[in-house]
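User: I'll paste a sequence; please echo it back and then give the predicted structure.

Assistant: Echoing your sequence first, then the prediction.
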Amino acid sequence: MNVADLLRSLQTEHDETAAHADNLRERIERLTAALAETEARLDEFAATRRVIDGLTPPDHATDPAETATATAYQHIVTTFNEHPGQVFRVRDLHEHLGLPTDEPSINVTCSRLGRLVRQGLLEQPGRGRYQKRT
């Protein structure tokens, strides 16, 4: 390889590297703009939360239905945390928690378990069977 070929090769590599750097700068600018928009949106959420908190009376009680739902999820998650390797069928879980085993109650728990699977807290090793995700 002679000097002229070497210089052409170096120039080609330089041009490719410069183009790559320009591409990265453009991506950084787009990401910086997206980050600024996202942070502004987060600030809006925080401001909205402060306004709502300011409008809510201090003695405001939580909706009983909301509390019952949160408590049901907590009982389910606690049970799986206490028995991490155990696989539960829905009816077995109801019996373990002392919940009614009628079909409507079982169906509600199936929905809750499905949601916990989608959230990644539980896994479903078989149809109708659930266990803590490892």
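The longest strand covers residues 122-126. The chain is about 70% helix and 10% strand.
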